[in-house]
Every structure is written in C-alpha cells, then in structure tokens.
Amino acid sequence: MNAADEFLKVATDYQLGALDTESQHPFTTSLSQMARADVGEAVKLMHQVDVHALRQFAAKSTALADLARAIDATFAAGRRVFLCGCGATGRLSLSIEIFCRMGVLPVPDAERVVAFMAGGDLALIKAIETFEDHPEYGARQLVELGFQDGDLLIASTEGGETPFVIGATERAAELSHNHPWFLYCNPDEQLFDAAARSRRVIENPAIHKLNLAVGAMAVSGSTRLQASTVLMAAIGFAFMHQHDPENAPKEVLQLLRHVVHCDGQFLVPFIEHEAAAYERGAFVFYVSRRFGITVVTDTTERAPTFSLVPFEKQDDPAAPASWSHFFMPEQPGAHAAWLALLHREPRTLEWPDVRHVAGAEVLASYDFSAQLAPRRKIRTHDAEHLQFHIDGGAGEMVWEFDGLVHHVDLTGVHEFHAHLLLKMLINIHSTLVMGRLGRYLDNLMTYVKPSNNKLIDRAVRYVRLLARRRTSVLPDYEEVTRLLFAEREKLQPGEPIVLKTLAALGVKV
Predict the structure, then answer these.
(1) Cβ–Cβ < 8 Å for 151, 119
(2) Cα 310 to the chain's mean position, in Å?
(3) Which end of the chain, N or C, is less packed with Cβ atoms under 10 Å?
(4) Taking each helix axis from N to C terminus, what angle separates 292-306 and 334-342, rounded to the nearest 10 degrees?
(5) What is the pLDDT of residues 203-259, one digit of tens each?
(6) How far apart are CA 240 and CA 106, in angstroms?
(7) Residues facing residue 409 across a β-bridge
(8) Distance CA 329, CA 447 (A)
(9) In the sheet that 283-287 helps form, which strands lie side by side, from edge to edge?
(10) Residue 185: partners with Cβ closer than 8 Å, 6 or more residues away
C-alpha cells in the first residue's frame, strides 16, 4: 500500500474544512494582492482581524478565573503545572514556561512549571513531521517528564482536534485527580461533526474545557496567528492572577487597549525592506535578547507555513541556508545559546524510533550562537546578511533594520503584554513579507507543507477550491489526493505543492 492509500484510509478523520480555524476570513480575501499593492492597507486588515479576535476573546474570558484558581491550588498543594501543545501551541507552551523562568510570570518555583511540545525542544525551531498525528506520543512525553497524581496539565490546541494533545490530555485525566484543562478555538458543534476524538475529549467529565473560538484566521488555517495569540494570553493571564483570579479576565481588555493603540502602520517600511532583501538574494539575522523566545517563534514558523527552508543543520554542509535565522551573537556556542533561550537545559527525545530526528545529538547540530555568522558566510558564499534587531529598554520596544528604526511606547505595559503585542506585530510583519513574495494566494496557504494528515487534507482542499473557482468544477477528492502525493515526491525546496497539483490537474492559476 502506497502513501496515498494510507492517507485515504484515514482521510475522513482529518477533513476539517468546516472548522472556523480552517475557513477564510472575510476581511482578508484579497490579502496577497493587497500585500503587493498597498502594504499599509494590508497591515490595517490584519490589525482589524486581531482586534476582532480579542473582542471575541473578551466575551469568553470569565472562565480564566477558574483556570487561575486551578493553578493556584496546584502550587499550594506542592504539585507541578505542565503545559503541552503541538506546533504553534507547543511553542506557546514552551514560551509560558520560559516566561516563568524569566520572572515575567509569577510562580513560587520555576522548576514546578514544565512545558513540552510534540517532538521535544528541537521542535521549537524545527518542525518534527507526523508527530502530531500520534496520541500515544503525547501520552508518552507526559509520563516521561514525571507527571503524577496531583499535577495539573494545561493543554492547548488551536483546532481542538490534534491527536497528540488529545492523547496527552486523556492520559493526564487518568493519572491525576487534578483534572486537566483543554483549551481550543473552534465551536463544539463543529468539532463534534468533524472528529470523533474531539467529541470524546470535550465530553469527558474528568477534563475541564475552555472554548476560546474567535473565528477565522487572517490567513486561512494559519493558527499561528489569532488562535495561538488568544491561547497564550489566556494561559498567561491565569498565571498572572493565580492569587486574585477574579482579575484575570480584566487583562483581556487591557491587551485589547494596547493593540488598538498600536495599529502597526510603522511596519510598512520594514515589510517592504525585508521583502526586497530576499528578492535580491540577501539573508536576514533576527537578533533579540529581551524578546528572544517570541522572535524565534515567528522566525521558525515561517518555514512550515510558507514552505521556506528551515534553520539549517550545521553538521550538514549541503543544507541550504534559511532566508531568515534567529541569532544570539553574544553566546559563544550552540549549547550556551540553547541555555540562554530556554533558561534551562534542553529536553530531547531519545526513543530509538525518533532519536534520529528529535534526540540530543540532532538538537546540538542546530546553532544560533556567535558561531553561526562565519558558517553562514561559507554556506552562502559571502552573500549579503542583514541584522534585524528587536529589543528595547524600560518602557519601549525598538525595531531596527538596515537603517530603519522605530520605537514602540510600552510605558506602563506589563512585560507579558509586551510579548503578546510583539507576537501580533511580528506575525503581521512576516505574513505580509511573504505575501509580497507570493507565498500565498488570496488568503489561502498555497505553499503549505503537507507534513501531517491535517495539512495533507488542507492542501487537497485548497487545490479543489481553487480548481472550482477557475473551472466551476469541483475535482474528486481521491483524484486530487493521489495527484498531490505524486507531486510531493517531485517537489523541490520552496515549491508550492498546491499550485503544482493544480497544474497537474490542468488548471491554470
């Protein structure tokens, strides 16, 4: 049985097009065209989507008080709080742990906050393919980190259907009388229709649910945008107010005020300048001490979202260089850089069947320390490298890039809010840079990398949707799936799987 046959056997479990998080936002149906024609208007549209999502979040925020109480009770009992997710929610889970270790979020002991994501810490900067399709992996990572009775798991999944996260949540419910929390961003009725695994976890009385549905994403299916923002905010606000839970929901309105005040129009020249750099063959180093985890998250997520070359393995001289790369020039070596980013030793997976993609030896080959710059000169044959700094002292955030400088006023803004604001700004920035480079069409992820079952279905869905728009005929799901798998075998780095499959169907874009 070939790979297409294997997928088609389970395809109905991953046909998620009816979910809000997979739908097209009406504000941004021409986002790719706007990114080229009028960047300021494109920024305005994406900012409006953020504001709209936060307003919906505010209407659902009263339950944050209960989550804050659960965190407080867990710490008071001397137990630990675990956080887990996959992809963007995995990175936000690790970010919350790092914020606790940095003192941005208050905890009695940072060692009592343990975050993990599908694929271990390496997945923070390198997508670990197929991991999210395995609920048993989520359960196994949870247990191996020492989760015990009395511990609390806070699990987040933007879609509400990720098998890895569901597996971890259900195992936590079995192991601990302290009921886990399951946070997600789609309406229950949609999830009940879409996936039996979602219905199972939502209806489980031993699991607390927090539905934070905020509608469609600015780019269809790109849950690294609004969904992961509200999930990160929800968990962080609960940590902030574990001792005064009734005040947790008020933080949502405070964040909304910050976002409304900062409309992001200063991003326009930065977007145009970075896109132009890539067009002429230059590369970009992103540098940040204060905001490192937030900056590296966005830089990492560009690769799977837009089929860019990911951060390169330094022990592979043939690996192509990524367009943008996170960089910590003050750190002398790879291990020091990892320690500085995570504020702890890295956690890897040494399972015999995954060590080759997620183990310590592999993680050590990914370097964003001072050693990176000379290696990149060799790898890119002395190509132009620009540094993009996002930092700032008390009361401000400073963006600096190749002569462009902008100061964002953060007077009176809590540091966690500053990271959330930066997340939204840099998400807008990177999305519109990619839009100017043609890395999506309308607001569809035509360069999506079909590396797991959900993304395979998404790519098939986009092929069918675009084919129908151009021919008025909806092609057969199985036919498109088989064509997509055939094109995936021939796909070169940076090529758009959706557009290649459309061409194989004989449809012109």
Answers:
(1) no
(2) 14
(3) N
(4) 110
(5) 999 999 999 999 999 999 999 999 999 999 999 999 999 999 999 999 999 999 999
(6) 6
(7) 396
(8) 31
(9) 324-327, 283-287, 385-391, 396-401, 404-409
(10) 20, 21, 158, 159, 160, 211, 212, 213, 214, 223, 227, 230, 231
How confident is the model at residue 493, as a pLDDT? 78
40-82 pLDDT, tens digit per residue, is 999 999 999 999 999 999 999 999 999 999 999 999 999 999 9
148-187 pLDDT, tens per residue? 999 999 999 999 999 999 999 999 999 999 999 999 999 9
Using an 8 Å Cβ cutoff, are 16 and 23 in contact? no
pLDDT band at 287 (very low <50, low <70, confident <90, very high): very high
- What are the C-alpha distances in Å from 385 to residues 61, 296, 315, 324, 458? 44, 17, 21, 9, 34
Contact status, residue 463 vs residue 439, Cβ threshold 8 Å: no
Bridge pairing between strands 152-157 and 81-85: parallel
pLDDT confidence tier of residue 508, bands split at 50, 70 and 90: confident
Query: E strands along 96-150, which residues?
Result: 113-117
Q: Which amino acid is at 84?
A: C
pLDDT at 449: 85
Domain ranges of the chain: 3-28+442-505, 33-43+263-436, 52-261
| DSSP class per residue in 365-400 | T---STTHHHHHHHHTTS--EEEEEEE--TTEEEEE
**Distance (Å, whole) CA 432 – CA 120:** 30
Q: Which fold has domain 52-261?
A: Rossmann fold (3.40.50)
Q: In terms of Cα–Cα distance, which of 130, 144, 123, 204 is closest to 170? A: 204
Give me the amino acid identity at 360.
A
Q: How far apart are CA 470 and CA 402, in angstroms?
A: 41
CB contact set of 287 (below 8 Å; sequence gap of 6+)? 326, 327, 328, 329, 387, 388, 389, 390, 391
d(CA 456, CA 283): 30
Instruction: Give the contacts of 263 (CB within 8 A, at least 6 positions apart).
Output: 43, 44, 47
Residue type, 303: A
H or E stretch at 283: strand 283-287
Cα R_g (the chain), whole angstroms: 22
CA distance 30 to 317: 40
Structure tokens, 427: 């998400």
